[in-house]
Amino acid sequence: MTIPSLPDGMTRAPSLSGPHQGYMPGFGNDFETEALPGALPQGMNSPQKCNYGLYGEQLSGTAFTAPSHQNERTWCYRIRPSVKHTHRFRKIAVPHWKSAPDIHPDIVSLGQYRWDPVSVPAGEDLTWITGMRTMVTAGDVNTQTGMASHMYLVNASMQDEYFFSADGELLVVPQEGRLRFCTELGVIELEPKEIAILPRGLVYRVEVLEGPARGFVCENYGQKFQLPGRGPIGANCMANRRDFKTPVAAFEDREVPSKVTVKWCGQFHVTEIGHSPLDVVAWHGNYAPCKYDLRTYCPVGAVLFDHPDPSIFTVLTAPSGIEGTANIDFVLFRERWMVAENTFRPPWYHKNVMSELMGNIYGVYDAKPKGFIPGGMSLHNCMLPHGPDRNAFEHASNEPMVPVRQSDTMSFMFETRFPQHLTEWAAKAGHLQEDYIDCWGSLEKKFDGTPGMK
Ligand code: FE2
User: Whole-model pTM above 0.85?
Assistant: First the structure.
């Protein structure tokens, strides 16, 4: 891992040694970091006066009274308190970033859908805010249930412009290009095969390091993402805590006219201030952004016959309040060996109470060798049957039962307990594949009443 580059004028905490330069390893740890020596109070959170003339401020990511094993908050020591980083608000239109419920009477969300990748439009500056294109919404942003899924199409850095969402955390899955997230709590660089989690309420600016940049975002209105319980798998494999990286403190002391955009209850608001809000010199706590390299995900699967439900590939899960039924699961289908004997190896045909939105990061997905293209997406909504297309079925039904390495493949799923509703952009944009449903059309009836393998 390389140390993330810094914008001019930003000061960062000294790097840790070894592979952790610029980041601290762990998931949900109680981190502490300071960009100036002695900026972090020791032994207490709220001294009468903070060193360097900093203001102490708590950022609460859960209710004060959340159970201690779920309670998340971070203490920030900053040049100005956050109340100086907003002023009066005015509403603005961000027409393509939708929030649930976004249900249109003339759009049919009941169906199996697939989309081609969309190019980042040339000749138009698209930032993290204006380049967000919502595909589906589920649940209700006002009751903090459900989610929305977006594609981002970004070719322009935010200039003296900052953003935070009060509506949910964002899970970012890049597919092309490199971005730098300059956040209140530190700097994250992100590229394809990595993901990042940006907590609700965190202020940040997004810069394009290598563009154009395209990827997927899951906006989680509900409880925060956490690591799934491994059950009998034990203490290792799947996503391991040490592979998550949280940035060390970094701040800038910059007094220029600046704009903060806030997403709140599905609406966008702008406020004007005279300085950068990225002014946290030191912080400690467990509510912070992080990144994770998907190549460190250790898949577990069948070693003799059949295969487990796809939940075996869960990277992160956001609970819904109903035990075992996620508001969102983030599931990864990556390179792995297929070794099961006498087994139909691809994902089987099924219907699911959960709604499944998939995206292809790179390569070929085994159940859909054609048509599900890197940068593309598919949706199999609540109780809509789906499974391998004819080619995949015929291949898997006749392939020799030898170990096969599934190479050159990385796809993911945002799976939610709520039905997913297509936005107008998803339903009417030219990249919707009208013929997707036909991929199952040529599946033959093999049954003729006589016994034997057909
Ligand atoms: Fe499925």
Answer: yes
